[in-house]
Amino acid sequence: MEYRNLNKLYTTPMTKSSLSQHDALFKKFLGDIAVARDFLEVHLPPHLRERCDFSTMAMESGSFIEDDLRGQCSDMLYSMKTTTGHDGYVYCLIEYQSRPEKLMAFRLLRYAVAAMQRHLEQGNDALPVVIPLLFYHGTTSPYPYSTQWLDCFTDPELAELVYRQAFPLVDITAMLDDEILSHRRVALLELVQKHIRTRDMLEIAADIARLLNLWAIPKEQFRSLMYYIAERGNTSDESEFLQHIAAKATDYREDIMTIAEQLEAKGIQLGRQEGIQLGEQKGRQEGEKLASLKIARQLLANGAERNLIKIATGLSDHELNDLVSQ
Question: Quick check: is 168 in a domain?
Fold first, then answer.
């Protein structure tokens, strides 16, 4: 599947007739693939133009703009490969406003991200390169605002630090426990979630209690933590785990007693449900066995062969022998 190069027409409030005239004229020209190719060959920056294989350029159709922007846009769609063989997107936006828009660069970025999202929704697992291009014909000249989207921020330098490098990663699976234990009030969350699937929670009960004493947490957070461990953790002895926490982190003893009672009640209820299910299953099995024995008796009375009876009823030789001897 080819990635699609999009020629995007941006419209803003004008009279309906003037807007449709601008739109119709632009589409009339850029609907001609030769004109559209010339447009991009002329106006794309050289370092981007040299990456585009204009001989592969073709007109497509389709729309992917979000509902809140669709009323301001009409689109023409092109597909084009790059000189390295990769497909890519190219945007071209026409500005219909009589006044420039300060945050136009951010709007271009939104269109670009929308194109990337559509590409993923088509079953691809990597993002295409999207080149936004703004075509402006307003009354203010020259265009007074930056088309660098980072300039839309109140602090462009900070924005550049955030968005031009890899996003911060907190990978607790690769952290040593000693490092996690130094993380103050968030250490408890990180330690439990690191080991919730891989270790017996009883093994880290001492560390949990120590953190509770060092960094007191609200009772609501504590209860959520204990229920999380009970429901998602691998705990060999849940009662011993709670007793250890209660003995070492005495401020939470009352909550632990309440939690223990609730877990016990829940366990009893689950036991009852499992007992009912096992009883029903056993009853079905006994009913099926009685039915098989009845069929076997009828077949024996009619002189059926032993192998045929075993196949028809699923009974064993021992069970058939007991039936014959009765």
Answer: no
